[in-house]
Amino acid sequence: MQAVEVFSARDLRNHSGELLRQAELGNMSIITKHGKPSFLTIPFDENLLRYGVQRTLAVLFVQTQQMTLAQAARFAGLDLEAFIDLLGKSGVDAVNYPADEVDAELEHVLKP
């Protein structure tokens, strides 16, 4: 998932197909009017139906690295453990480290 896309009201009129494609790809978009956010589009998917808007947004914010786990858990109204469980059920990794960083951390921890 990418960061949130921003479209102007004019873009909405002229490029509605792109907005639809972004939603089909699972991406949120913000529509602005005169440069100010007017509304937010959220992909209509199984997570939205199952968990509601607030929790789905929290998952998307973690997935796009726009919120930390703790921030998103608070936003979702869950404790950290319950939120991590929600991430797992949504197919989103709670920890997103590149393999080389994990290897470096393990080497540091395992040094005698």
From TrEMBL:
SUPFAM superfamilies according to UniProt: YefM-like
Domain of life: Bacteria
Coiled coil: none
Family listed: Belongs to the phD/YefM antitoxin family.
Record-linked NCBIfam families: phd_fam
Record's protein name: Prevent-host-death family protein
